Amino acid sequence: MIKPQWLRKPPAPFAGSTRVRGAIARQGLHTVCRQARCPNMGQCYSRGTATFLILGDVCSRNCGFCAIGHGKPGGVADIGEPERVAQAAAELGLGHVVVTSVTRDDLPDGGAAIFAATIGALKARLPGATLEVLTPDFAGNMEAVDTVATAGPDVFNHNMETVRQLYGVVRPQGDYERSLQLLAHIRRFHPGVIAKSGFMLGLGETMPQVERLMGDLVHAGCQVATIGQYLAPSKNHLQVAEYIRPEVFGQLSRLGEQMGFAKVFAGPFVRSSYMAGELLKGALVESSSISAEEFTDTATRDENSECTGYN
Known about the structure:
CATH architecture: Alpha-Beta Barrel
Number of domains: 1
CATH topology: TIM Barrel
CATH class: Alpha Beta
Number of helices: 11
Helix content: 25-40%
Radius of gyration: 18 Å
Oligomer: single chain
Strand order of the largest sheet: 1-2-3-4-5-6-7-8
Largest sheet: 8 strands, mixed
C-alpha cells in the first residue's frame, strides 16, 4: 500500500537533536522515540524534548504493532535509573516530562516502584515541571497502579491501543477490560490526576467499533485521548490495513469532546506523548484551542489515496 502524501513528513532540523541525544547517552538511558521508531523523533529531538523509556529496553510482551524488543528482561530493575532520568531532564530543562516503560511482567510490582522513584527524583530536580507517566497495565495489579499514582504525576496515561475486536491480534497479552479498569481506578481513587489514553487507527477497525471504544473510555472516566495513524515499523509487524484521511481525525476529535472528553487530540502523526505538554495545557485551559492541523504537520491531502472504512 502506497503511503499517501499527508504522511510524508519533512526532515526535522538537525541542530537540536544532538543535544538530546547527548543527554540521553551520557546517562545511559533509552527513549521510546528511538526504541519504538516514532515518526516524530526528529521533530521532538530538534525541539529539545524526548520521552524517557525506563525499566530497560526489553519488553516481556510481544505486541503486533510495537518495534520495542521483546524477550526475557532479566528479573531485576535498575535502581539508579530514576536519578539518571532526572539528571537528563534537568540538563534539557524540560517543562513537561513524559516517562514510559516496557512491560515488565517478570517483576512482582511490574516496575511500579521504579516509576514512583522516577517521579520523586523528577520532582526534586525539576519542582516546576509537570509530569506525565504512560504505564503498562501492571497485569491488573491495582496496588502497583496506586504506587505510581500516589507518587504524584500530573497525568496518568495508559493506552488502549485499539478496539476490543482487534485485541487478540494487536495486543494478544493485553486485556481490553483490564485496561479500562485501570483507567477507571485512576479516576475513582486518584481524582487529582488526569486520566489519559490513546489508540491507533488503520489496523482494520470500523467506525462503530471506534465510537464504542471512545464511549467506553468516557464511561471509565478518561479525560484526555489521543488518536493517531498506525504505521508499521517493519515488514515483520502488523501491516497497515488503511490510511485514514486527516479530516476523519478532525471528525473524531469533535465527536470525542461532544461525548464528554475534556480534550481529544487526533491526527495522522499524533502519538501518546507527542507535544504532551501543550496537550496538557489544552486540557486544563478551556479557552485553549489546538487545531488538528498542528498535529498533522501537513497541508497536502491526497484525494486519490485508498480509504475504505471511514468514508
